[in-house]
Design a protein that fits this description.
By secondary structure, this protein is an alpha/beta fold. It has eight helices and eight strands; from the N terminus they run αβββαβααβαβαβαβα.
Length: 320
């Protein structure tokens, strides 16, 4: 079948397509695809500019659940409490691992002079909702509770994630707001996976989502997380943040997406609703860009997206 959107892709991004798994997700190949995406992508290979202190530890998980693994990065020479990015990895809720972003996190911690804490949450379908979001909340709660020991400024802790990690970050911001135990400084959402109803849209975008994260994979991921058909009634906003009826009092938001990303319309709608709820929003849309385009090591649009993201994080952390 001929492509409907390849001619719309930024030419500098074409070669990256060959480095991603192309087989549609299934129960049979999920294990192999999980292993394939653990490898750092080309855009993540640059070394940090300064020495870092790194650690891996396990912190208490949700009641009755296993402990949660977190990876921590912090510049060795930085004294005093720093800001903190609480990072949640992507992978469609069914794959991914915090270690795959180690090179990027090392570089980011060095460049911004901040702590980065990345969480390994339980994956679907082995663990259905609310396992992953509760793992993230437990780890984030531990960070706030141990901020002094970690030399982290509680007033400068925010959440960040890409794809499903962005969806979890958005849901985590909602959950933190509603439980009221601590306050986030920002949410930083990179092409976030926010809305299970995209799977059943009556008029799907005719050009978005042809590559990498497709409509088929989206249905697989949401079905695995929810244990029910996407678009069903009663889906919690802590599973699909776009389901929230009230977006007020959420932290200042950075949201970036590609014009050819399957999530582009749900991302734009979420940004619109945040703005209507008086939440400060910085929205970035990149032409000719598919899902995860910012992993490309040299394409100008990918470099621009990484610069925009880092600049927004620097402002949110007060380190610009």
């Amino acid at each position: 079948m001929p492509s409907v959107s390849r001619h719309l892709i930024d030419p500098e991004l074409i070669d990256l397509l060959d480095q991603f798994p192309t087989e549609p997700l299934s129960d049979e190949n999920l294990g192999a695809i999980r292993e394939a995406i653990r490898v750092p992508m080309p855009g993540d290979v640059a070394a940090p500019a300064v020495p870092l202190v790194e650690s891996t530890r396990h912190v208490p998980g949700p009641r009755g659940a296993p402990d949660v693994e977190i990876l921590t990065y912090r510049p060795e020479a930085v004294a005093g409490p720093t800001g903190c990015i609480f990072h949640i990895h992507g992978g469609g809720y069914v794959a991914g691992d915090a270690t795959a972003r180690q090179p990027a996190h090392r570089r980011l911690a060095a460049d911004l002079g901040c702590a980065i804490i990345s969480v390994n949450y339980r994956l679907a379908p082995e663990t259905r909702f609310p396992g992953s979001i509760e793992d993230c909340y437990a780890a984030l709660s531990w960070v706030f509770g141990n901020a002094a020991e970690l030399s982290i400024d509680r007033a400068r802790i925010g959440v960040m994630g890409e794809s499903a990690g962005g969806g979890l970050a958005a849901a985590l911001a909602l959950l933190a707001r509603d439980r009221g135990e601590f306050r986030l400084a920002f949410q930083h959402l990179i092409y976030p996976m926010l809305d299970d109803r995209t799977c059943v849209a009556r008029d799907p975008h005719p050009y978005a989502g042809e590559f990498l994260w497709t409509a088929h994979n989206n249905r697989f991921g949401w079905s695995a997380l929810l244990g029910a058909a996407p678009g069903s009634t009663g889906v919690s906003p802590y599973a699909a943040a776009a389901r929230a009826s009230d977006l007020s009092k959420l932290p200042p938001t950075f949201l970036a997406t590609g014009a050819l990303d399957l999530f582009v319309e749900e991302n734009l709608e979420y940004a619109r609703r945040l703005m209507r709820a008086a939440v400060p929003v910085e929205l970035r849309l990149y032409a000719g860009s598919y899902h995860a385009f910012d992993m490309h090591p040299t394409a100008r649009v990918a470099e621009t997206a990484r610069r925009d993201s880092q600049a927004a994080l620097a402002r949110a952390l007060g380190s610009d």
